[in-house]
Amino acid sequence: MPEPIYWREKILVAKIETTYGVDAAPSGAEAILAKDIRLMPMEGNDIERDLELPWDGNPGTIPADLHSKISFDVELEPSGTAGTAPGWGVLLRMASCAQTIAAGTSVTYNKISSGRESGTIHLLIGDTLYALRGSRGNCKIDVSASGIPYLKFEFTGLWTKPAESTRPTPVLTGFKDPSVATSTNTPAFTIDGTSFVLRSLSLDFGNKVEPRFLIGDESVIITEMRETIEAKVVAQPISTFDPFALARDATQKPLVLTHGTTAGRIASLSVPTAQMQRVQGLENAQNIKEWPLRLLPRPAAGNDQFTLTLT
């Protein structure tokens, strides 16, 4: 009997492509430290032939529009050095973000509407290589009290037939041990300058990712981006902060979340024009009233719905 392929023997690597859909050949130097990796290796359609045969039987199908999907979570922790991109920066670039580096100072990510980059993702399980070319995807930033902040990714890429390959040696120095979201480690969360006790916050990039299979063009494209924010906070007196009036008037207010306190390890999320939406219900947690808030990041000058800045 051959040696079984152990599920734990996974190596994930990703690299930006120079030419769309051409395998960028990521190596161990582009390794990604992730959890909960899920792969759908052969998505597409089965085209029915619908032949009229003189006997009963299945006339068969033909596979078409083949593509692959992969999802995984990455810890939201900067590189440890201000002005140095983290190992997961390439993934945000594949999720329609620009990466701007100020040497020795900061790395900033913001959404873009054109010139979107694509990447090649390789997943090895044992010696079997699953390759996703022309990959683009969506991301959700997830921060919860007493939990590790995460970037939750889902990518779609063009299909390549799996094959046996040589396993690279992963280099994971671009990933640092994370800090848990606590009052000490997460020193700021404000809406319109008002500080809140925060239970959880999720920012969904809202990228609509679609495979496109035409004669002369096979690609994965992002056809729409509509970011949304959900936050659960401890309620305050209406005289201090009135989410109902803000929602009624479709008011836009700045939202800021800062996680990390040490230089090189600080991640700051800024949403300068967050529109408050209707408060749909109240919640009881340990006999304390909480508000489940919903907000829409709105563009002002364009491509400025939010920034994620690492310092």
Count the E strands: 20
Largest sheet: 18 strands, antiparallel
Radius of gyration equals: 22 Å
Q: How would you spell out the order of helices and strands?
A: EEEHEEEEEEEEEEEEHEEEEE
Ranges where pLDDT stays below 50 over 5 or more residues in a row are: none
What coarse outline follows from CA principal-axis ratios?
A: globular
DSSP helical segment count = 2
Calculate the terminal CA-CA distance, rounded to whole Å.
Answer: 53 Å
Percent helix range? under 10%
Brief overview:
The chain has 311 residues and is mainly β. The chain has helices at 89-93, 243-248; strands spanning 10-16, 35-48, 61-75, 97-102, 106-111, 119-125, 128-144, 150-159, 163-164, 188-191, 194-195, 198-204, 207-214, 217-225, 228-234, 252-259, 267-276, 283-285, 288-297, 307-310. 4% of the residues lie in helices and 50% in strands.
